[in-house]
Design brief:
The chain is mainly beta. It has 1 helix and 8 strands, in the order ββββββββα. It is 5% helix and 30% strand.
């Protein structure tokens, strides 16, 4: 994994199950440095109007020619019925290409989902979709591991 500060850490790859339509997969970071670990929460407590945040490193564009950290606030608009590929959570915001896989956080900065898609229907209407974190966790049990896993270390609060 390459960090913005040019630091590199080894990754232990975990893959999605073969034939899975879910685009989510996971990995473990192997490092001698402690990183903060986000707290998680169920997305079941989210309601339309709930405050959400999502972040990522969008693909370069004509103005911003390098990937740079981008953070957005949003409001939950609802849940999709019969979600395609697990994208159940619907929310506002101006997601950009390349932000898929970033965190979807609730108003208490807890991980409640994974940002995945933007549905642009006109020049002004955008809908974003994320996979609830509990759906990801439920499916993670079927992920094939390339090597033995190591537990993540939580950074000491300062």
């Amino acid at each position: 994994m390459f960090h913005p500060n040019s630091r590199r850490d080894a990754l232990q790859t975990l893959r999605s199950p073969p034939g899975s339509r879910n685009r989510c997969s996971s990995f473990e970071l192997q490092s001698n440095k402690n990183y903060a670990v986000a707290q998680t929460a169920s997305s079941q407590n989210l309601r339309p109007g709930s405050v959400l945040y999502f972040a990522g490193y969008p693909s370069p564009g004509p103005v911003n020619t390098k990937r740079s950290y981008t953070f957005y606030d949003a409001r939950m608009t609802g849940r999709t019925q019969d979600p395609n590929e697990g994208y159940e959570l619907s929310y506002t915001g101006s997601a950009l290409p390349g932000m898929s896989g970033g965190p979807l956080l609730d108003s208490n900065a807890r991980l409640v989902g994974i940002h995945g898609k933007a549905d642009i229907r006109s020049q002004v209407a955008v809908a974003n979709y994320g996979v609830p974190f509990e759906v990801f966790l439920a499916r993670r049990g079927t992920i094939n591991r390339d090597s033995q896993s190591h537990s993540a270390q939580r950074a000491d609060p300062q």
